[in-house]
């Protein structure tokens, strides 16, 4: 090959590669397409521009909407499209509307100084950082006023509640990221995770503000008694709107004087929540809470507290104790599970079950097993591999039991009235809890107050491992399913007495038949993405975008280990079990049911 020809070929190849680099690598986000909550790459540096000279009113409004994608310096670029008075009145720090980009805007001029905007919205971020994906897109039409300033059109009137509009791509990949904010439950001294979304800039300060904010907005609005989540004295805030981090990784959270009125219990809870939350930031190795430069002390505060356990609080960990499988009447520890056998002690002995018991659950180490009878009227319990103890009848249509780290067993069903010798008359949906530390033969299921269930039937109920939240799947008399999240209300002794008014989660899924905790802030369900779709397994973050995970034919129950969506099992009606492997599902040979200890 001649040197000239070789040079020509090299130039052609370089040209082709350069052209390919200019091609888009992904298309616009479509409705219900799987969306990961975590960005796959560092955020791109995108340039945003102010108003173009001599732009007409429609172009000006479109430019303003594009500039919503830059949050730097309190939306400084977007404010260039506003008059001075309009900029002063625009407060975009509250709710964020999320769409699929410019195609979700329709901008038309009504008069020379008035433009009509119709915007489509697919999700919303509330003022507390919680993301809600809508079941169907919402549409909003607003009037936007403009006037000329020095011969150029500027926006002079915006609706009072006009928050920024961001595309899903900008929101997820460039501007916001999810973090866990911990809420301190004081009666059980447990930290409860709450996933919230934060701008990528000023993260440490934003996390500290979230801890001070306390309970989620929906829970603060709930009627009736609320859980004993730590609340700092009113008006407590950061003394300076920043959390400096020194070269040793110490983050100093300096608070206003009002926090000095907090008692020792409130201060300890604040220390625990602040440490657990801020320690997620890679640069932070230790947290110091101060007031006016002096440490916020408590009588039992160590010199250099580092973790919540230093102040007596715990973050319930998901232990990898393996899983239990069922083949016929035999329960056994799964040999190929990734968990190693605990050092110094053998695994608990598992009981032998007759075929009348199914819908099984086990406590964290597998020492206690619970199951429901074939007619779903009885609860059976086994301790240390012993004989079955049949709990005296208290309900019917009982759900699969659920254990948590507080040694509690939860389940739901239809309660029984006293009418008739067989007590078959239902008196409504009910939720029960049992203390599994008490003697099994004398322990009874205790009903907790759930007046908001009304005439709904509970299809599934799963306690979170921390024991402070419950995922409840209900079905109305009209056949509509709802996926709900409620907090547990406890008395002074830490005993569960009621569930709070719930919030609906996973509105983007329908026809749900079962639910499990995939991890502390994410549910997994059997349901549909659209009414005309078949059922499949769907990841449902409590604050995030849902993610379809593929169909499992004949899916009846879903079981989560709590260690993420990569460790899910689906019980099918064949009967059989399928497990999550990579991006698909694989049948587990010879297994009829699976139990994840502690769930």
From TrEMBL:
Protein species of origin: Yimella lutea
Domain GerMN: from-to ranges: 204-300
Keyword field contains Iron: no
Protein keywords: Signal
Protein known as: Sporulation and spore germination protein
UniProt cross-references to InterPro entries, sorted A to Z: GerMN, LpqB_C, LpqB_N
Region annotation Disordered: where it falls in the sequence: 28-52
PROSITE patterns according to UniProt: PROKAR_LIPOPROTEIN (PS51257)
Top-rank taxon, per record: Bacteria
4Fe-4S recorded as keyword: no
Signal peptide interval: 1-21
């Amino acid at each position: 090959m001649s040197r000239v020809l070789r040079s020509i070929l090299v130039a052609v190849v370089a040209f082709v590669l350069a052209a390919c680099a200019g091609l888009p690598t992904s298309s616009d986000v479509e409705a219900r397409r799987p969306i990961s909550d975590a960005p796959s790459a560092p955020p791109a540096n995108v340039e945003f521009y102010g108003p173009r000279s001599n732009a007409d009113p429609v172009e000006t409004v479109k430019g303003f909407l594009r500039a919503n994608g830059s949050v730097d310096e309190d939306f400084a670029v977007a404010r260039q499209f506003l008059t001075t008075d309009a900029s002063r009145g625009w407060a975009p720090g509250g709710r964020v509307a999320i769409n699929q980009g410019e195609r979700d805007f329709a901008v038309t001029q009504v008069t020379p100084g008035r433009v009509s905007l119709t915007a489509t919205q697919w999700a919303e971020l509330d003022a507390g950082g919680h993301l809600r994906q809508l079941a169907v897109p919402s549409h909003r039409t607003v009037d936007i006023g403009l006037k000329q300033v020095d011969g150029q059109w500027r926006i002079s009137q915006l609706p009072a509640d006009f928050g920024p509009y961001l595309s899903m791509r900008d929101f997820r990949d460039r501007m916001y990221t999810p973090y866990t904010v911990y809420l301190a439950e004081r009666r059980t001294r447990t930290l409860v995770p709450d996933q919230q979304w934060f701008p990528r800039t000023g993260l440490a300060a934003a996390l500290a503000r979230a801890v001070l904010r306390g309970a989620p907005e929906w829970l603060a609005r709930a009627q009736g008694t609320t859980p004993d989540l730590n609340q700092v004295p009113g008006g407590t805030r950061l003394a300076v709107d920043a959390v400096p981090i020194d070269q040793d990784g110490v983050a100093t959270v300096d608070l206003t004087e009002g926090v000095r009125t907090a008692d020792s219990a409130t201060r300890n809870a604040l220390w625990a929540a602040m440490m657990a939350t801020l320690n997620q930031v890679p640069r932070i190795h230790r947290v110091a809470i101060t007031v006016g430069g002096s440490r916020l002390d408590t009588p039992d505060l160590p010199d250099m507290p580092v973790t919540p356990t230093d102040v007596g609080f715990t973050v319930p960990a998901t232990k990898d104790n393996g899983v239990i499988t069922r083949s016929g009447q035999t329960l056994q520890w799964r040999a190929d599970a990734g968990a190693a056998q605990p050092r110094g002690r053998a695994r608990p002995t598992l009981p032998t079950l007759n075929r009348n018991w199914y819908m099984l659950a086990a406590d964290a180490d597998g020492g206690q097993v619970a199951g429901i009878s074939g007619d779903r009227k009885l609860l059976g319990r086994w301790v240390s591999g012993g004989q079955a103890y049949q709990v005296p009848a208290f309900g019917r249509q009982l759900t699969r039991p659920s254990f948590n780290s507080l040694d509690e067993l939860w389940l739901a069903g239809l309660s029984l009235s006293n009418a008739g010798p067989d007590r078959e008359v239902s008196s409504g949906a009910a939720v029960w809890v049992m203390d599994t530390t008490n003697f099994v033969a004398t322990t009874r299921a205790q009903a907790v107050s759930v007046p908001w269930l009304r005439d709904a039937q509970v299809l599934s109920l799963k306690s979170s491992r921390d024991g402070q939240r419950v995922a409840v799947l209900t079905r109305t008399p009209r056949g509509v399913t709802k996926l709900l999240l409620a907090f547990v209300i406890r008395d002074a002794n830490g005993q569960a007495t009621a569930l709070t008014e719930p919030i609906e989660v996973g509105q983007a899924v329908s026809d749900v038949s079962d639910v499990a905790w995939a991890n502390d802030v994410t549910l997994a369900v059997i349901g549909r993405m659209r009414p005309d779709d078949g059922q499949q397994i769907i990841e449902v973050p409590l604050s995030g975008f849902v993610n379809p995970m593929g169909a499992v034919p004949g899916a009846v129950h879903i079981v989560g280990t709590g260690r993420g969506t990569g460790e899910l099992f689906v019980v099918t009606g064949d009967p059989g079990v399928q497990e999550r492997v990579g991006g698909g599902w694989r049948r587990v040979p010879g297994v009829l049911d699976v139990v994840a200890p502690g769930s």
